[in-house]
Structures are given as structure tokens and as C-alpha cells.
Design brief:
The protein is α/β, with parallel strands linked by helices and about 160 residues long. Helix 2 links the parallel strand 1 and strand 2.
Length: about 160
């Protein structure tokens, strides 16, 4: 993890929430990298040395960022209330929660591109291919979101 990489990601997410989803002031929860968000340096210093200073600087630029939050409790419904999105620091920190809460309904969305890019929330499911038993729900959700994003871009152009 680097400060420039994290800053680029946060600015990309912030801009996409404004542009693609029409949120004038998105509120973003930012997870810590280490367990328990580093426990004040006892479980890692990335939060103290990198994440917190960067979040403070971006807050001064007007971004509404909360964190770094411990990933083990950040996804509790009461904690999620009031956030527009959660930025996880790596794949297996956020994706298991998404798949548990919305498998077959979730959509993989790539932000920061000049066009909408969506995908299903699961892998290739080669074990199901050609057997007529795959659930198309995630594909339908991805298609609907892509159409919504394309309409939003047309309206804001």
C-alpha cells in the first residue's frame, strides 16, 4: 500500500460516486489495512504512518472520509448506516461480506474508466456451464446497472 495509490483510489471512488450515482457529497468508510485497524500501532503501523495522514489531508480537501475502521466490525448494519460505500484495502477484506450479503445480486463495478464496466459477482462457474442450472441473477443485475450508468452518463453529458 502506498499513499499515492490509496489517494488515487479514494479520489476515483469519490468522483465516481458523484458522477455515476449523483451523490453530491459521498460519505466513504475506509477500512484499515491491519487487523483491528492496527490497534494504535500494535498490529501494524500503516494506519498511523500512511492511512490516517492521507485521510486527514483528503478531508481538508472536502472529502467525507471515515476511518480507518477495523474490518471485523465495519460491516455491521449499524456501522454501515450513513455510508455510501466502503473502501476495503484488499480483495478478501471486503468481498466475502459482499458475497454473503448479496450473492447473485451483487455486481462487480470498475470505477474510473471512460465507460461503464460491470461484471457478475462470481467467477466463471465452468462447472455449471452448458448444464442449464446456472442462476442468471447476477448477470441480470450487472446488465441493469450498466444500463443505469450509461443513462446517467448521457444525462450528465
Amino acid at each position: 500500500i502506498t499513499a499515492p495509490g490509496l489517494e488515487h483510489t479514494l479520489r476515483t471512488v469519490h468522483a465516481a460516486l458523484r458522477r455515476e450515482f449523483g451523490l453530491p457529497a459521498p460519505r466513504i468508510a475506509v477500512l484499515g489495512l491491519n487487523p483491528h485497524a492496527g490497534e494504535d500501532g500494535h498490529l501494524g503501523r500503516e494506519e498511523l504512518d500512511l492511512i490516517i495522514p492521507l485521510l486527514q489531508r483528503l478531508r481538508a480537501d472536502g472529502m467525507d472520509l471515515v476511518g480507518p475502521l477495523p474490518a471485523d466490525t465495519a460491516f455491521l448494519p449499524a456501522k454501515l448506516a450513513g455510508f455510501d460505500t466502503v473502501l476495503a484495502m484488499y480483495h478478501d477484506q471486503g468481498l466475502p461480506v459482499l458475497k454473503y450479503s448479496g450473492f447473485e445480486q451483487a455486481v462487480n463495478l470498475t470505477l474510473g474508466l471512460p465507460y461503464p464496466r460491470v461484471a457478475v459477482d462470481h467467477g466463471t462457474a465452468l462447472d455449471l456451464a452448458g448444464r442449464g442450472i446456472a442462476d442468471p441473477s447476477s448477470l441480470q443485475a450487472a446488465t441493469a446497472l450498466c444500463a443505469q450508468l450509461a443513462r446517467q452518463r448521457t444525462l450528465s453529458a
